[in-house]
Amino acid sequence: MSTVELKRRLSRIMRRLGYGDCAANVYSALIFMGSPSSIDALSRSVRYCQTAVSMALSELEETGLVNKEKDGRRYMYTADEHFILKFEITVEELLNKELRPFRRALEEFGEGSLKEGARGVAQRLLSNAQDAERKLRSYIKMIRRPDTTEMSE
Fold it and tell me: Which DSSP string do the residues of 29-70 spell out, in sequence order?
């Protein structure tokens, strides 16, 4: 498999994690550059304007996927290869900040005086939210457990 194909696949993963095209391509390019890179070099590599690359780098830096260091008068950027951490953080944030409060609100909503149709919808949503919460908790528990299969190989 070529580097171009690997970059394309990593960019696709990054887009699925919620990053835009520019950020996904900048991150992928930076990973495979293997050494710190300037905005100018990244801009040429991914064929986006320097402003777009700068904004993408800021977003990636905010989420801890890119590190920035001053080198003379310019900044140099390196990629943190642990992009899957973003996925883990996203799952935890979804669970803690969105799904649990939604489930609690549905539970409270279900206790109130509702019309029959609304009560049925609330009950189905609550069941789905509880199921999703169980699955996400299970996933989080699994990813935090050391992978014993890698050690045995």
Answer: HHHHH-S-B-HHHHHHHHT--HHHHHHHHHHHHHTTSEEEEE
